[in-house]
Amino acid sequence: MEMTARFAQLETMVDGKNCDGLVNHNGETTEIRVPLSHMGKRMSPIEGLNLYRLRDRKFLLEDKRRLCAWALGTALLGILLMVLHAELCPVVYQPGSIYALSINGLISFSTGCLLILIIAFHYKDIRLFIIDHNQVDWRIAMTSYRVLGISLELMVCAIHPVVIYLRPDGEDKLGRKPEQNSSTPLCLSSSHREVMLDVELLLSALMFLRLYLVHRAVLLHSKVLLSASYRSIGSLNNINFTFRFVLKVLMNKYPARTLLVFIMFFWLSASWMLRLCEREKQVDTGGMDTALWLIAITFLTVGYGDVSPHTSCGKVVCLFTGVMGVACTAMLVAVMTKKLALNKGEKHVHFFMMDIQISKRIRHAAANVLRECWLLHRTTQTKYTSGEHRHHQRCLLEAIRVFRHLRLKQRKLRDYASEMVDLSKMQMIMCDLSANWNSSYHELEQRIISMEQKLDELRRSFQNTSELLTQALHHRRLDYR
């Protein structure tokens, strides 16, 4: 309260000398204050007290999380409406009908709501930046990078098919109704030019760019960001909680689930986009079943060649699918390698049993070497044929080779067994040994100190004894005299 009254008193002083913290009319000096806000602005509780700042920061984080969820739901709703409109028109309803205009109106309305939610999200983000950096003017947070990011995000979210509003009636210049053509990729009449068809096709495909909101929702709703222990330990280790870190945590905890969800979603989305691109040409890839097959063999980098895209849009979709397939295959190989790798206990059991088996084979090989040496010595001492002598020499060399090979194999196995886990275990053993040595050293010091004390006592006893003997001899000498 005293601090608030003091700030209010300083702000109410509007004298030319006093507002800058200089000498007033009475000659008394006041403290110099450098305001962060413009003159006439009252400081809010956010800048005043840290408790209010922490409370408002918590509320802003919750608002950001809620707005991000709503924005993702609105983006998915717009994409679903676009897909529904492309599949139903002109099969169920005709172009230019009230149903077509209604669904297009809903798509535009969801796009407007999405833009409002994006603006509200960045407004909360700017307020959070102001609280974190203890600033007042919001223009400090509006850097060129932030402005460029917001503009690009609004541009991406604003993309939706709008060609239907240009010629909603579907009439040509003479006022005649055109013939309906079911081969058009979207709900458009045959009187529209091919350029309009390509533009609406491109706008419909670019609506999938709204799915960038998934990574933001995963980041804001992850347990890593919500856990206070994660944040405290991460701040001590200079770890930035970005989507890359959250993705790494998910891949380490749930690798199979994460890859499966991503692959299935990408497979269905790419198949529908390929069907949307190829449906205009009335080819085999215009069907959903053939599109699913083509995307699957392209994603798996097989490429049988039985089906191929015919349009430029379809070729671009297949090219992107192949690139994503290579990346996902590499991640899948890494995950399978990690799953098939032996853990600590399994490695110890496996290496221990392998060592026992190789040790048995080494003993057998050593016994064979000794046996062949004895047989060769016996053939040398006795009169055997030279063929039998060469046979035993050959067997001796083979036994020596097998023995050396097994020794080398055992050495390699022990090198493989000495991994970082074993090194850490050895480090723990050395720490225990050093602790035991320290305790033994302290006990030895105590014993040496006790021995020194006993030696001092013996020295004093010897001195007393010598003094007593000297006195006794002196008295004896006096008596003798």
Automatic annotation (TrEMBL):
It comes from the Eukaryota. Residues 441-468 form a coiled coil. The chain crosses the membrane at residues 67-86, 98-123, 144-166, 195-213, 254-274, 286-304, 316-336. One of its GO terms (molecular function) is intermediate conductance calcium-activated potassium channel activity. SUPFAM superfamilies: Small-conductance potassium channel, Voltage-gated potassium channels. It is found in: Membrane. The keyword Ligase does not apply. One of its GO terms (cellular component) is neuron projection. One of its GO terms (biological process) is potassium ion transmembrane transport. Residues 355-429 form the Calmodulin-binding domain. Keywords: Calmodulin-binding, Coiled coil, Ion channel, Ion transport, Membrane, Transmembrane, Transmembrane helix, Transport. Gene3D superfamilies: 1.10.287.70. It is a multi-pass membrane protein. This is Intermediate conductance calcium-activated potassium channel protein 4. It comes from Danio rerio (Zebrafish). The lineage of its organism: Eukaryota, Metazoa, Chordata, Craniata, Vertebrata.
